Hints:
This protein is of the alpha/beta class.
Amino acid sequence: MSTVLLPTPRVRAERALADRHGRVATDLRVSLTDRCNLRCTYCMPAEGLDWLPVEETLTDAELLHLIRIGTSLLGIRTVRLTGGEPLLRKGLEHLVSEIAALPDRPSIALTTNAIGLARRAQALADAGLDRINISLDTLDADTFHRLSRRRRLDDVLAGIAAAQQAGLQPVKINTVLMRGINDHEAVPLLHWAIEQGVQLRFIEQMPLDAQHGWNRKTMITAAEIMVRLSSEFNLVEDSEDREARGSAPAELFRVDGTDHRVGIIAAVSQPFCGACDRVRLTSDGQLRNCLFARTEQDLRTPLRAGASDDQLADQWIAAVAAKLPGHGIDDPSFLQPDRPMSAIGG
Ligand code: SAM
């Protein structure tokens, strides 16, 4: 009688990335580089920043190793690739295909300014990219230049079209409104989004710019955005959307008379920290339990020193456990993190 060898079930000792306030992190934001080809005024100074040295930046193999620990041992379900500008990372398509080939494949998302995406969107979709968020703050070429200090609006629009053609639907558009610069564009941007079939999400400006120029008094609030949009559109809160929101940062409104939804991310005026399910890995291998964290857990040093997966997972668990209940922007003692948004991974 021949012996039938049954496949051995894969043993998974998955532990949750839980903190002391009842939240569980399942969404990993990975910064692939701190470099960017734009110089948005609310993010970076005109001259750029001191970029991280190459030898301090995780290689693809190191990144993949840490992502695998997250997905196989720690319950990470979504990996969002960001930066800096993630399209500047060489071999991004290959990295996406390697993440897609992991045994516990996460959903893979990309946040990008879309410069160069026109010729890469299809390859990224083919490699396994599931979702895309594209940043676009204006439809006016001069305003684009004033905001980003580069003349690349046409590249971004071509990238958005290519993402749609590649089936990365729905393309979500991230927009930051700046007083006196592009805040008059809330309504035209929503008209455009409806026409194009993309989902617009307005994000309140946060104190994460390298120049420390953020000022709460001049920030365009979610309430102001609502007033502006309501002058032209009837925005309806949708109970289904509210239930489905879960940990999603955007509050969604349906544009009455259409199937279109617009999101408002009131990160400053109505923080949603209580529902946060995010943890971040910087391109130099530092784990951050919050965008605004003032401490980091170094995973690169133990990784390079040969720590085991369990040891790295333990450090990761400890870092998330210590997550504070909120970002604390309203606290009198609030201090901006040392790293700007571009080096954390937005
Ligand atoms: N380069 C990519 C991009 O443009 O999407 C990814 C990184 S960028 C830091 C990610 C997002 O953060 C962009 O949508 C950008 O507009 C947003 N962002 C940057 N600085 C911000 C700030 N101070 N407040 C709010 N959003 C900010």
